[in-house]
Amino acid sequence: MLTEVNATRYVTPLREGGSLPGIVEADNLGTYVMKFTGAGQGRKTLVAEVICGELARRLGLRVPELVTIQLDPVIGLSEPDEEVQDLLKASGGLNLGMDYLPGSIGFDPLAYEVDAAEAGRVVWFDALINNVDRSWRNPNLLVWHGDLWLIDHGATMIWHHNWPTAQASAAKPYNASDHALAAFAPDIASAAAALAPLVTEELLAAVVADVPDEWLAGEPGFDTTDALRRAYAEPLLARAASIHERIVFDAPARTRPSQAPGWLADRLTPRPDRAKSTNDKDGVK
Ligand SMILES: Nc1ncnc2c1ncn2[C@@H]1O[C@H](COP(=O)(O)OP(=O)(O)OP(=O)(O)O)[C@@H](O)[C@H]1O
Ligand SMILES: [Mg+2]
């Protein structure tokens, strides 16, 4: 079960996110990026965030802590933006929170090196969950304290939008040509050898158990939320065994000019180089 907290203050919207997530403070003194049940994308996005985020964490990938956040819409009454007001009003009850990483920076493939092993693990994992939202246009990766962190797993497991065709849909290949880490020679074979055996029925049962019942209840075609939890686990279990054979790179990875100003490139350098630079007088902490 995810930790549950209560929102105490709505701080600000994150306008770069399509679903208009917001930064909120909670009664455990934490600060979270909150994804709202009332957002247009619907609660399936939140289910995907929990299942894929918690699966990634159990596979040793870095994902900021996930919590559920109780929201009393009155905390948004003084919010001047009407769009935000409407979102808060539509989202009373349980929402999703991701630990806010202060000072983190959006991943830039031209300013940050990723080794082939790590790139392989991320691409393999994205193939497993069929993540269509980790492209070089919108990497949904953060760099924080010199490490790569995975965020935003809302656009994954496309099969959960049409359960009758889920099995066929889950058998399809994963096209990684536009993946944010495609240019780093991802070592897919080693990632599959290390991670696929970890994706067991038991592990998946633990992961799907983290989804709050109220985000699963009432799904057409399922009498119980437990049946729906099993339906989420099945395609992932099936894909884990062989998805590495169906990862397609059909064109050379595209690149684009780095968006990072010079001073930022320094902060985006990965840990080994940073370790050196923190010994310098001018090193960035
Ligand atoms: N845990 C976090 N710590 C710091 N910043 C974050 C965190 N999570 C998200 N952000 C920032 O908020 C932005 C939007 O978050 P996210 O991508 O999860 O939202 P979204 O609405 O699903 O976006 P998208 O437009 O990609 O669908 C991110 O690009 C990042 O800049
Ligand atoms: Mg995003």
Automatic annotation (TrEMBL):
InterPro entries: HipA_2, Kinase-like_dom_sf. Residues 268-285 have a biased composition (Basic and acidic residues). Coiled coil: none annotated. Residues 255-285 are annotated as: Disordered. Residues 14-240 form the HipA-like kinase domain. This is HipA-like kinase domain-containing protein. It comes from Streptomyces liangshanensis. SUPFAM superfamilies: Protein kinase-like (PK-like).
